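Postdoc handover notes: sequence design on the structure in folder B. Input tokens:
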């Protein structure tokens, strides 16, 4: 999400002992949570929730929605609607916002344990080209430049308009044990209430589901089956001239785009497949995801239900802009 949202969003955070995500999620890391990091993780919430004069009839309690996960197209519809509503809200408040495209999939989200796609490795290596695109986009973000140009008074007004005066009213605890609060007033909460209807339920469901991957990857990385498969992978890599204990160290060693990065990535993907490491990692991830489904089934179901129920309004918003 655009840097403007990161600047606009304010959350009150009271950290508890938690896991911190590392490159490739190979090893547990010290808990390290910052206000900025969590604010950035909440950017999509800000985009989703800006007020627009689109009303919706009250819920009858009888609606049913599909239990199927959202398709990439449906997610794109939600994203586009979020951007349209954000721009409309900013305009109503006297500010300018430039709609932004969806960010490319995070390298760690695509390959959380090891690069195992040979075609992708040949083209992107370890994703340094993707990281560079994201960096350049952030540097040239027109919304960031615009917000920086505002006076201190206008910045304060923009913050209050988006998030409310104080970050109180909504509360949720992430799977990593971090308690997050946000205002139930302001543009963000007004629009989320219109779009998703059940504001507190939505806030809790999104906070929980957005954070499930962090503890899950930690559980996978310490599983004995994972450690055994990792050792097999490391031996395979050593035979090819890459003496690294895990993929995270390989990625760190090749942070510059070029032929060496591509060669190392091809070796990593080849060994991930030939030793069965990639398969073991996927199976374990699915195993712990299923356990999370039992623990956080309510939040997972709530998010899917609310997103599916929001799709008709999102489509209407997108279609109204195209006319």
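Designed sequence:
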């Amino acid at each position: 999400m655009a840097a403007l949202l990161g600047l606009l969003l304010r959350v009150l955070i009271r950290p508890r002992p938690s896991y911190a995500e590392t490159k490739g999620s190979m090893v547990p890391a010290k808990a390290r949570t910052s206000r900025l990091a969590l604010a950035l993780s909440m950017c999509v919430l800000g985009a989703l929730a800006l007020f627009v004069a689109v009303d919706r009839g009250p819920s009858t309690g009888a609606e049913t929605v599909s239990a199927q996960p959202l398709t990439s197209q449906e997610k794109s519809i939600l994203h586009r609607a979020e951007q349209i509503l954000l721009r409309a809200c900013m305009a109503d408040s006297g500010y300018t916002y430039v709609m932004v495209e969806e960010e490319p999939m995070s390298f760690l989200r695509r390959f959380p344990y090891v690069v195992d796609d040979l075609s992708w490795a040949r083209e992107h290596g370890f994703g340094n080209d993707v990281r560079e695109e994201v960096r350049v986009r952030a540097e040239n973000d027109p919304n960031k430049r615009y917000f920086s140009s505002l006076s201190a008074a206008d910045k304060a007004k923009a913050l209050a308009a988006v998030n409310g005066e104080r970050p109180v009213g909504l509360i949720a605890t992430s799977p990593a044990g971090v308690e997050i609060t946000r205002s139930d007033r302001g543009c963000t909460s007004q629009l989320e209430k219109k779009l998703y209807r059940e504001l507190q339920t939505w806030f809790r469901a999104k906070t929980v589901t957005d954070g499930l991957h962090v503890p899950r990857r930690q559980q996978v990385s310490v599983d004995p089956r994972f450690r055994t498969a990792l050792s097999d992978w490391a031996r395979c890599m050593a035979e090819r001239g890459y003496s690294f204990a895990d993929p995270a160290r390989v990625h760190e060693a090749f942070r510059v785009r070029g032929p060496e990065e591509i060669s190392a990535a091809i070796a990593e993907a080849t060994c991930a497949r030939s030793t069965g490491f990639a398969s073991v990692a996927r199976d374990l991830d699915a195993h712990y995801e299923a356990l999370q489904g039992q623990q956080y089934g309510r939040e997972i179901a709530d998010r899917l239900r609310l997103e599916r129920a929001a799709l008709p309004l999102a489509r209407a918003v997108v279609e109204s802009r195209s006319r």
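Context for whoever picks this up: The first helix runs from residue 3 to 8. Don't rerun without checking with the PI first.
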